[in-house]
Amino acid sequence: MFNPIRSGGLAVLGLLLVTQAFATRIIVDNSMTSGTHVFTQTGSWTAVSNPSGYYGINYLLAAAGATSTAARWRPDITTAGYYDIYMKWTDGSPRANRAAIEINYQGGTKTDSTRRVNQTINGGVWVFVGTYYLSAGTGNSVRLLANADGNVAADAVLFELAHAIGTGPSTAASTVARLEYNNADNRLNPVEVEIVRTDSAGTGVDPDFALRINGAGYQVEGSCGHEAVAPISAASGNTIRVYSVPSMGANATAISDYLKAASDAGIRVLVGLWMTQPDVGSANEDFYEDATKVQNQFNILKAQIDAHKHHRAILAWCIGNEIDPSNHPNPGPIYAAIDQVARYIQDNDHYHPTLTSHAGSSQTKIARVKQWAYDIDIVGFNSYGASVGNIYTNVTGAGWKGPYLITEFNLEQPSGAPTNAFGSIIEPTSGEKYDGLLDTYADNVLAHTDLCLGSFVFKGALGGFRVTHTWYPILDENFTPTPSLDAMRVCWGGSTSFTAPKVETIKINGLTAAQNVDISGTGTFTSTVTVTADAGKTLQYSVEIRPDVGTNVNTPPAPVTGVTITQDSGDPRKFWIAKAGLSPGLYRLYYTVKQLNASAPNGYESVGTANIPFRRQ
User: How many domains is the chain built from?
Assistant: First the structure.
C-alpha cells in the first residue's frame, strides 16, 4: 500500500493535485434499470413512495424474511481508486436492524460480506458504509439481501472517489461478521456510531457531514484529558479524548470501570490507540520501517481494541497522535501502519469510526492519509491560535472527501505567543482566555459544522505543561473550574453566566507584561489586578513567584521561597513584594483568585489566574 522509496512532501502534493482532478461522484438509484449505472433486483420487491426521504421517484420494499430476494447497485467506474460508499433508505416500521450487504470491490474479485445496515434508524440520509477500492468497469457492486428480521428498503447507493490510484489492495477485507451484543449490563453493549451525509449528493452539491449515535445527531463537544469526566459533564460537555487505553486504568477491569463511569455521566470517549512517534533525528525515526516492531505494536493495539470495543461509552478510535512529522523522509510506512489498525477496526468493530490526529492541518498530511491510510474515516487536527482558522480551507483545498474533528485546540501555544524585551513569553489572563475561546469556537467550529464534527479543547486538569502550569488547563490541579471552562460551557450550550472570577489585567508597579517589567534596587514592588466576578461572592487573592522558564522545560518550577509577600490592608487585590531574597534573574509572578465556598472541595468552587514575567536586576 505504500511506496518503499523514500518520498518527500513535493511528491505527495503532486499526487494531491492529480487526485482532485479526477474527483467523481456516482449515484445509482433503484430506478436505473438500464444505462451507464445499473440497478438490478431478484425476488419480490414492491415499489413504494411513502414515507418520503428517498432518492429519485420511489424506492423498493421487501417483506421480512424474504428469501432469494436481493438488490444490486452496479456503477460504471471510469477512474479506479478508493471510493467512499454510502447507502440511503427511508424511515419505516418494522424495518430490519441488521440487513446484510455485500461489497464487491476491486472489479468484483474481492467481496466484503461482513457489513450490516440498521434500517430502523437514519432514514432519509446517506449512511457511510466504508471505503473500498473500485477498479475501472462494471465489476464492482453493492448487494443488499432482504432475508432479515424486518422489512428491507432498497433505494440508492452513493459512490464518491476519495483517492484516485491505479493499484488496489493486495489482500481482501476480513470475513469477520459484525457481532451482536446482549450483555446484562447495558453499558457493555455498543451503540451505533455512524457518519452520515445530510446533503442531497447532487451534482455540484457540497457534502454536509454529521455523526449520529443510534440515529440521533451528535456534535462532539469535548475536552482532552481522561481525568475530567465529572466536571466536563457538569459543564454540558459530551465527549472526552483520552490518548491511550492504559491512561484509563491499570488493568482491563479499571478501564472498563472508567468507561462505565463515563457512560453513567453521559460522556462519550474518543479512545486513543497510542503509537510510537517517529520524530526525525530520534531513535525511533525508522521505527515503521522495521516490520517486526510494527507487528508487535499492532498486536498490542489489537488486544486493546478486542478487549474494549463493546463499551457503550466509546465514540470512535483515534489511531496515533502526531506520528506524522512533516519532514519525515519516508512517511509511507507510518501511514501504512495507521491503516493496518484502521482496517482491523473496520473488519472487527462495526460500531465505531476511525481517525488519526495530526499536528497541524497541512495539505501534505491530508494527502498522505488519502495516499496511504484509506481506511481512516475522519481526519483529526491539533491546532492552536490563528492556525485553527486554517483547518477548514486546508481540508477543502486538499480534496478530502470526508469529515474532520479538531482533536486539540486552544489559544496560541507559548511558542507562538508574544514576548517581552527579555524574551519572556506573555500568557493571556484568564479573562482574555475566556473571550478568546468564545471567539475561536464560534469562528472555527460552529461556522463549519458542514464538515467539522466537533472539537476537543485542550486540556482537562493534569499535564499539558507549557512554560507555565496555568497556560492551558480548563480545570486547576484540584479539578476546580476556571473561566476557560465557563467559556466552553457557553460554547457547549450550557449556562451563559460565568462562575469563575476572571482576572482581566495584571500589572507590576503599574506596568503590563508587554512594558518590560524591571525590578532593581531595594525595598518593595507592587502587584495589582482587575477582576470580574459574581457580585456577593467571597474572593481570596494570593500571589507566588516562580522562576521563568522557556519551552524546553517540561515540568513546572517550584515557587521561590524566602521572599516576603504582603497583602495590602486596604485593597486585597494589591500585594507588596520585598525585593530582598530575589537574586538577579527572570521570574514570573502568579496571581490566583479563588471564589470561596465552604461546602466545595478544598473550600473553593472556582478559580481565576494570571501571571506576569519580570526581570530582577
Answer: 3
